Amino acid sequence: MDHPKTLLVTGAGNGIGRATTMHFHGLGWRVIGLDRDAEALAELRDALPREHALLLTCNVGREGEVNAAFARIEEWLGADPLDCLVNNAGIADPYAGPLDQLALKDWQAWIDASLTAAFLVTRASLPLLRRAEGASIANISSTRAVMSEPETFAYAAAKGGLDALTHSLAVSLGPLIRVNAIRPGWIETGPWQKSGARTHPEHSPQDRDQHPAGRIGRPEDIAEAVAYLHGAGFVTGQHLNIDGGMTAKMIYEH
Fold first, then answer.
1. Can you identify the CATH homologous superfamily of domain 6-248?
2. 242 φ, ψ to 5°?
3. What is the pLDDT along the chain (254 residues), one digit of tens a residue?
4. Is 155 part of the annotated catalytic residue set?
5. Rounded to a whole number, what is the distance in angstroms from the first to the last CA of the chain?
6. Residue 175's CB: how many other CB atoms inside 10 A?
């Protein structure tokens, strides 16, 4: 009997990570979620059957915590493989303030939360991914890897590094493991936060109109892109903008 496929998502407690975890669970996958937000994970734990979900509190930017989490993951999986890894963790707020006031520790926090975490979790996942047929990794980057707003230095650098890590991993780990990046644009994550932080904002017509697709993005859009890339056996080393066409549109101030 074939084993059920298994997905691992970092930053699984809220937003894109939460939506991706729930999307794949709905497809019949087992899901593993890592997040430093214990409260958000507790909500997910109540929503998912224990035999199909392993949710662990973990700061994925710290090597010791990643190693401890993977000891538990390996025990839970037994001899089964990990089929898909989603490196989604990161600091959501991109704004760092003026460069001359940016402390090194704050710069490092952005880098560690996204780029260092992707390195640590991918390295720890390799033995489990290598057990699978058609394993894939999706790194959740950002359109800010290729375009910027003011004062987003560390966030942009972390996501740009994640883009470069993506093509390097694809070349190094193929053909057994395919690796791609997804660059979300404006994704409204409010409805996918834990209950105490959940919002349902109303967007203006101007907000919607700057997207050729005619709307703001949803976390489900990213989850569907992860599913597409996992099944797309001839796609690796790519960087897929999921932004409603926003980066393709010239926008002028009037």
1. NAD(P)-binding Rossmann-like Domain (3.40.50.720)
2. -115, 85
3. 467 899 999 999 988 999 999 999 999 999 999 999 999 999 999 988 888 999 999 999 999 999 999 999 999 999 999 999 999 999 988 999 999 999 999 999 999 999 999 999 999 999 999 999 999 999 999 988 988 889 999 999 999 999 999 999 999 999 999 999 999 987 776 555 666 766 777 777 776 777 888 888 899 999 999 999 999 999 999 999 998 888 888 777 65
4. yes
5. 62
6. 8
Burial call 182-206: b when 16+ CB within 10 Å, e when fewer: bbbbebbbeebbbeeeeeeeeeeee
Return d(Cα 60, Cα 116) in angstroms, integer: 8
95, 155, 228, 252: which one is catalytic? 155
